[in-house]
Write the structure tokens for this entry.
Amino acid sequence: MIDQEIASRFIARHAGSQQWHDRALHVLAGGIGHDVRQAAPFPLYIDHAQGAHKWDVDGNRYIDYNLGNGALLLGHAHPAVIRAIEEQAPRGTHFGNDHPLQVRWAELIVQLVPSAERVRFVNSGTEANMLAARLARAFTGRGKLLRFEGHFHGWHDDLIRGFLVPFDIPGSVGVPDRVFHDALLVACNDLEVLDRALAENGDVAAVILEPSGASWGTVPLAPGFLEGVREITRRRGVVLIFDEVITGFRWAPGGAQQRYGVLPDLTTMAKVVAGGLPGAAVAGRADIMDQVAFTGDSAHDRRHRVLHYGTFNATPLTSAAAIATLEIIARGEATAQADAIAAALRQGMDEILERRGIAGYAYGEASAWHIYLEKAPGSGVRDRAALRTTDPVVLKGMPGDLVMAVQAELRQRGIEVMSGLGGLTSAAHTEADVAETLAAFDAAMAELAGRCVATL
Ligand code: PMP
């Protein structure tokens, strides 16, 4: 729940969204389309979007730091992407055949992503991680997966436990207990813990992680951790999967692996990779990926191949949007612009928190910004610097009412976050967007300081 005054001001400005939400409650299960759209007093209903902005059904404009759940590094409705879709749509949206665009799309991935030797297309990040897990299990002949507390890898059974605080609960009902036996959950940022877990469990097929740190850097990785994970997994013959669903083509044109110079065996990508249309990919070492290949011996293949289907894998429409997007990203300026905007936001937001004596800080890297805030009243915190932490329970465990109140106050002032108290930037954001965002953030903090948000 958020406080009544915040809710009533929000309701007054968003009557259209409220009406649509009321209708949705009769037909959409749970009244929303995605768990992260859960918002108080209700979610926004958006009418259209362009560049860094989107407009709701009441005509309110937002500077968008959600960007299609992180998919739109070039911003909404980029002219080159729209042109590619408009050229392809009348030629057919789905052939049920292979087609030249899927090859060109795969070539761009192989060109840009340092560890990508072969590519297979799927439809979402969840599916990409399912395929990566199957490939790793087939390759090693082992059954278990090891994942880190707080990291998100989609909503499928295998990896659902461990991304929400508290990490040791199932995360969802409806998942059989036996699944948890095969998905080891270990603390992040501790190489000894990882090495011991792998020593004690000789049947681990793959280690999977977000190379940004959990939830696109909400929980930063310790220096050297990524390199250490690479060394340990190589030494122990365990497949290393980078979940680059968000960081792919965003942390650098070649993703986090390019930014950090650490190469995984398999990479999953599902946002920027598909140019804003539904689509995703698994890429990696040819010897692991080629387990999906037919050998010509059907009796052999029935027993020894990795099976993979998918009606909408790399449709021509998605492929066209993806190619247009990746060709621009390959030039490098888009990533640099998005990074510069995020850096300016992080610095400006941190200065505002400092000036207002708020118990919190801004952080993040590449084109991501995050805010950590202590809840009022009575946090007892006196020193902003002492708040800095890499504890996932703290960083992912901010109280829901605090998060929803800050989100509502930012939306009220035309700012849309990605999830939690963080956002992603695009190449379409400008310095004017930064100035407007910081003014809105300052006003929201003035409203909430001492009330929902702790001061020093
Ligand atoms: N992995 C990561 C790191 C993600 O951020 C997400 C989605 N936000 C997923 C996997 C799942 O992707 P999808 O929603 O396309 O299934």
Summary: The longest helix spans residues 333-355.
